[in-house]
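Hi all, posting the design record for the shared folder.

TITLE: backbone redesign
STEP: 1 of 1
STRUCTURE INPUT:
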């Protein structure tokens, strides 16, 4: 009899036994979230809409996120923000554009809007000075970003007296969970944007997209998202590199190749949307009060 080697121990599971963040799944929870968003109105009547500014590297999924929110709220597949399916290092979004989402009744819109800006490429991306101007409401809708020079106050794209509704009420950084190491130049730009928003007191969230392609277990079952060791590490690394607390980072799967809505995808999208509008609403209300003091 030869020496038999003991069988190697099984590889450690890619999943934690219990999720590290509580989430309610299922149709009832989705309906509750959907109803909350549908009934939402800003606390202060002065505010026409909560403005959410999305920023992040090229191809992270900013336009796809807007489309995905639109899909969930319309209850069907749509193509509102015209995401580019070819992710080159050139940004698809060139203009400062406001996206409104229609309510069931034709002439009505939800009281929150999304602004999507050019990706943060090194040489051809949006300039951080322009993002700072956008945060304060100085960039008019439709302004075409110029990677070479920032918007100046004598140009037609400059809004010299922004209302509280023109200002950004919540800043959302979108990043691809599948992306390789972040370029230091892009990270630097993202940090500058964060600092500018922090100085203005603007609340900030981050969304980690493409979680299904970043983790096989989550691809098999989206409900594994908070059990995935890989995604938890990704979120932790992202949190420490950018300084965004873990409870402000939300993993997400955008709609990309599907032709039908999916309950679990909707749940993650609506949970993120609820946080955005709540954070933004509190900040907008604060702005209104500080104006009257």
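Okay, here is what came back for every position:
SEQUENCE:
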């Amino acid at each position: 009899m030869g020496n038999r080697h003991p069988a190697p121990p099984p590889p450690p599971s890619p999943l934690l036994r219990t999720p590290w963040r509580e989430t309610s799944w299922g149709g009832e929870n989705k309906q509750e979230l959907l109803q909350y968003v549908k009934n939402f109105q800003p606390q202060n009547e002065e505010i026409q809409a909560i403005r959410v500014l999305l920023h992040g590297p090229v191809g992270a999924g900013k336009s796809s996120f807007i489309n995905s929110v639109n899909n969930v709220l319309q209850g069907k597949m749509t193509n509102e923000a015209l995401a580019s399916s070819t992710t080159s290092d050139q940004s698809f979004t060139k203009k400062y554009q406001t996206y409104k989402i229609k309510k069931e009744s034709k002439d009505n819109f939800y009281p929150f809007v999304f602004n999507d800006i050019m990706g943060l490429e090194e040489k051809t991306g949006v300039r951080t000075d322009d993002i700072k101007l956008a945060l304060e409401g100085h960039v008019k809708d439709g302004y075409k970003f110029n990677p070479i020079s920032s918007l100046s106050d004598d140009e037609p794209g400059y809004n010299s007296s922004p209302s509280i509704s023109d200002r950004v009420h919540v800043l959302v950084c979108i990043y691809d969970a599948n992306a390789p190491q972040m370029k230091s130049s892009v990270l630097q730009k993202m940090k500058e944007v964060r600092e500018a928003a922090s100085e203005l007191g603007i609340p900030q969230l981050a969304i980690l997209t493409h979680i299904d392609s970043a983790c096989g277990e989550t691809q098999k079952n989206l409900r594994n998202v908070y059990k995935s060791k890989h995604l938890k590490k990704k979120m932790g690394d992202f949190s420490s590199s950018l300084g965004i607390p873990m409870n402000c980072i939300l993993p997400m799967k955008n709609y990309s190749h599907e032709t039908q809505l999916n309950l679990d995808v909707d749940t993650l999208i609506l949970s993120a949307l609820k946080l955005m509008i709540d954070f933004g609403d509190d900040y907008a209300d604060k702005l209104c009060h500080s104006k009257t003091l």
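COMMENT: The chain is about 35% helix and 10% strand.
Let me know if anyone wants the other runs.
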